[in-house]
Amino acid sequence: MTVDIERYIYGPDRQHAKIAELDAKVSDPGYRLISFGHQALDDAVALFPGSVTAIAGRPSMGKSLGCKWLAKRETARIVDDGVSAAQCVVFVTLEEDVPRVSMAVRGVTVSGAPISNADIYRQRLTPGAITAASVAAGLPPFYVIGHPGIVNDRMPPPVSASVIVRAIERITDTTKGGQHPTLILIDYIQLLSPDDGAVNERTKVAQVMAAAESAKMVATATGAAVVIAVQAGRRVDDLAFPMPEARDMQWASSIEQVCDTILGVMRPIRCPAWRPGMPNSDDYLVVGAGTGQKSYHVDDDLAVYGIAKQRAGQSSGLFPCFAPHDLATFDAAVAS
User: In whole angstroms, what is the distance from residue 168 CA to residue 224 CA?
Assistant: First the structure.
């Protein structure tokens, strides 16, 4: 492929043109940040177009749930605003299957209740109920990128960074009815496969580095906010307050370097100190100090987000959240 190198060079005139382009973009009435709907967290954290944000946590702490909540909220925003039929949300799933992600984000319910994994796999629903509920939920501008499974008796290549880039190029291809993603989510980045198929510790670091760099490239090229779920390293389990820090990105420090914002997430009830029946367990999480100290009752709906890094705002802060697993809402937790 012949590369037009001039496109990569920004002299004074092209720099000025890009600055004017940025000014016009952030001044446009349609410009907006991606939000959680949690006022304090949204005031502190800027998920802006073209940015890359990591949500980092240990297993089962809520990385995927945070990504699905953002996807659900932004998809609903696009539908409600009706600003542009070409806007969409893209979700790359590397952990859960496509149906479960789709149903969670699209708000598929039966008799007004979300469909749980237990409902599905223990056959608690009447035949056809899931399909009927999916039809009733409609078809909002939401795309999922996931492995297709066996096709024509053959296993297609696994999802890699290059597969994601090509899939997003296809979604945005204006010659084929292309959409404009306002939000792209990758859940989770360490599960990406290498393009050459080789997997060992050295290639794992390289592939995560390539994935992080691809995420930044996609954010810059599409103008979408990109959110990546990241597995935090085991060191976090030994911390007195097990909130991931920027240095805890498993497999690659490149994630720390590439991201504009890094948010840690933990659910106290999943941590040893608060597990029911554990010695010295405490029913309350205490946040802050002095007159600003607040206590929060620990249950399965309490999640805590922490700012580990941010280029466009404050670089620290803890935000206790009421974040139920059914994605019904996401708001500030109420102090006891």
Answer: 11
pLDDT band at 254 (very low <50, low <70, confident <90, very high): confident
Give the model confidence (pLDDT) of 166-186 as tens digits: 899 899 887 777 888 999 999
Q: Which of 159, 221, 149, 147 minimizes the C-alpha distance to 184?
A: 221
pLDDT digits (tens, 9 = 90+) for 28-73: 877 888 999 999 999 999 899 999 999 999 998 999 999 999 999 9
Dihedral of CA atoms 142, 114, 45, 275 in degrees, nearest 10, equals -140
Give the tokens for residue 90.
């893209």
Ranges of beta strands (E only) in the chain are: 52-57, 87-93, 109-110, 113-114, 142-145, 180-187, 225-231, 261-266, 284-287, 294-297, 302-310, 318-322, 331-332
197: left (phi over 0), alpha (psi -120 to 50) or beta: left
Distance CA 186, CA 227 (A): 6
Domains of the chain are 33-264 (3.40.50.300)
pLDDT of residue 272: 72
Q: Quick check: 263 and 225 in contact, CB under 8 A?
A: no
Per the CB < 8 A criterion, the answer to whether 71 and 184 are in contact is no
Check: CB of residue 284 under 8 Å from CB of residue 333.
no
d(CA 308, CA 203): 27
How many angstroms separate the CA atoms of 79 and 176, rounded? Answer: 21
- CA distances to 90, 127, 161 from 194, rounded to whole Å, are 21, 39, 8
Phi, psi (deg, nearest 5) at residue 169 = -60, -40
What are the backbone dihedrals phi and psi of residue 3, each rounded to the nearest 5 degrees, phi first? -105, 125
pTM of the model as a whole: 0.88
